[in-house]
Amino acid sequence: MLEAHYLVDLLDQLAFDTVYHEHVSYWALGPMMRLFSDHGMEVVRAERLPIHHGQLRATVMRRGEGDVDDTVAEVLAVERGLGIDRLESWRAFASRVDRLKTEVVDCLRGLKADGCRLAGYGAPAKGSTLLEYFGVGPDLLDFIADRSPLKQGRYTPGSHIPIVAPGRLLEDPSPDHVLLLAWNFEDEILAQQAEFRRRGGKFILPVPEVRIV
């Protein structure tokens, strides 16, 4: 049994920021089945899980030792429907990412021009991918709050934005809007920062589309 980030969810969610040094392979069921078939094995069950943008869990046995259940055909049908094996699907993905970049940067610059104070929340590796590709730096975000003491007092790589403790969101002057870089933990973080929101603070969700909550 194995579990890995699922390419279909990356495509569906426009999760381009999941692509970074720690993630060097992106799995889908079709290629996985071919790999195991070359070694006398077969996938007998396929499950999609929601954690971390979406995972694929596959159960594999020696060929002929187990029955292949319906989940394998169901997951393969989804992959074929999305065309993940076609280059044009990924060119369209790249175009969607470019449009999202324009929308996010225009949103941040518009708020800044209106006199809003802006910050970020969450300093995961995926956040660095987003900041670097979108070209967002300290000219737009005053700081990034993160719960990890190991990151506080340091800077984001490349963009060089200072990382501080979450309590800074409640200090005066507090930011008006916060770009949520750890957007895959939206529900958890919004619950943690209920007081910031009660005071009128807003979060900007950058992926898969721009939302202000």
**Apparent shape:** elongated
- CATH-level-2 architecture of the largest domain: 3-Layer(aba) Sandwich
State the name of the first-level CATH class of the largest domain.
Answer: Alpha Beta
> Strand fraction band?
15-25%
Mean of pLDDT: 95
Q: What is CATH's topology name of the largest domain?
A: Rossmann fold
> What is the CATH superfamily label of the largest domain?
NAD(P)-binding Rossmann-like Domain
Structural class: alpha/beta
Count the E strands.
9
Order of helices and strands: EHHEEHHEHEEEHHEE
User: Which spans have pLDDT < 50 for at least 5 consecutive residues?
Assistant: none
Task: List strands and helices in order, with pairings.
Elements: E1 2-5, H1 7-12, H2 29-37, E2 41-49, E3 55-62, H3 70-82, H4 87-113, E4 118-121, H5 125-134, E5 144-145, E6 163-164, E7 177-180, H6 186-192, H7 194-198, E8 202-205, E9 211-212
Parallel strand pairs: 4-5, 4-7, 5-6, 7-8
Antiparallel strand pairs: 1-3, 2-3, 8-9
What does this structure look like?
With 213 residues, this protein is α/β, with parallel strands linked by helices. The chain has two domains: 2-85, Vaccinia Virus protein VP39 (Rossmann fold, 3-Layer(aba) Sandwich); 98-212, 3-Layer(aba) Sandwich (Rossmann fold). The protein has seven helices and nine strands. The chain has helices at residues 7-12, 29-37, 70-82, 87-113, 125-134, 186-192, 194-198, and strands at 2-5, 41-49, 55-62, 118-121, 144-145, 163-164, 177-180, 202-205, 211-212. It has a six-stranded mixed β-sheet. Strands 1-3-2 form a three-stranded antiparallel β-sheet. Helix 5 (125-134) links the parallel strand 4 (118-121) and strand 5 (144-145). The longest helix is centred in the middle third of the chain and has 27 residues, at 87-113. It is elongated. The model has no long low-confidence stretch (mean pLDDT 95).
